[in-house]
Specification:
This protein is of the alpha/beta class. The protein has twelve helices and twelve strands. Helices cover 40% and strands 18% of the residues. An eight-stranded parallel beta sheet has the order 3-2-1-4-5-6-10-12, sandwiched between helices. Helix 1 links the parallel strand 1 and strand 2. The longest helix has 17 residues. The mean pLDDT is 97.
Length: 285
């Protein structure tokens, strides 16, 4: 049996569907009982547990052949990332007590970066979980192609998409959540020892301009990217309700300046199979 956290989201759901497609038993770990029915209908066992509830997670993870861990996203964390430290402390306690056979954690490109930025919180997760007594794989995924979901309405209605990824012709490592789900499911069914890092991106790197051209072809109308001036980001993010936009700005700088990169570089990353156009068509539909 494989225990899957974050199963109601895109990535966790993809992991679970891949496992179910090959008749692997799945335990859906979720905090909202109201979202359990679709997974129970697919034949999943259901365990109710908040991601920071060590006792409930221990019960959810006990007896598992593997656990897939996905931390909730935090785009506006407190200084020093106390939220992720609290959550990972609970998760580590549960994993140590439950002793599943293996653990696969969704991490991120740039988790190893020393420069301060929003993604440091997943570097903290890796550091805190690296000493667990079972085999652990950190799946470092590139920028999600599905982040372009934020752009669909503007592409359709105005034909102009604001871009924080710059320059607009700079290729960015991106990956589809479908590919993350496939690889995570394969890792859960595999065997290794100790700590393992797997870095994943799509078949090729993608520029913001290519995203615009992809939308243009799908929607049948001109679509272009427009770079958002760097000096306006702080005010924009603050107006959106962020208390501290600096970590997010630092993350974007890291992608734009190239220091958020895979530890093994582009040549050393695993390549997914989903092309950008496929991901964009799914978003538009």
């Amino acid at each position: 049996m494989y225990a899957i956290t974050g199963i109601t989201g895109q990535v966790g759901g993809a992991v679970a569907r891949n496992l179910l497609s090959v008749k692997c038993p799945v335990r859906a770990v979720l905090r909202d009982a109201g979202k359990a029915a679709p997974w129970a209908a697919r034949g999943c066992d259901v365990a109710l547990a908040a991601i920071d509830d060590a006792a409930a997670l221990t019960a959810a993870f006990r007896g598992a052949e593997g656990v897939f861990l996905l931390l909730p996203s935090s785009f506006d964390p407190e200084p020093g990332f106390p939220e992720v430290r609290r959550i990972v402390t609970a998760v580590k306690s549960a994993l140590t007590a439950a002793r599943p056979a293996k653990l696969v954690c969704l991490s991120t490109i740039g988790a190893q970066a020393a420069q301060p930025n929003l993604l440091n919180q997943l570097g903290i997760m890796e550091q805190m979980l690296a000493s667990l007594p079972m085999p652990v794989a950190f799946l470092r995924a590139a920028w999600f192609m599905e982040n372009a979901a934020w752009d669909v309405t503007l592409a359709r209605e105005t034909g102009v998409i604001p871009s924080f990824l710059q320059p607009l012709d700079k290729p960015v490592p991106m990956v589809a959540t479908a590919d993350i789900g496939r690889l995570a499911a394969a890792l859960l069914q595999g065997t290794w020892s100790g700590r393992r890092i797997v870095e994943l991106e799509g078949p090729r790197r993608v520029t913001p301009n290519e995203i615009a051209r992809g939308f243009s072809g799908i929607l049948g109308r001109p679509v272009r990217m427009e770079a958002v001036p760097r000096e306006t980001w702080g005010a924009l993010f603050t107006a959106q309700g962020m208390k501290d936009p600096i970590p997010r700005i630092q993350m974007l700088d890291g992608f734009n300046e190239g220091w958020i990169e895979f530890e093994a570089g582009e040549a050393g990353s695993t390549k997914g199979e989903t092309e950008l156009e496929t991901a964009l068509r799914d978003l538009v539909s």
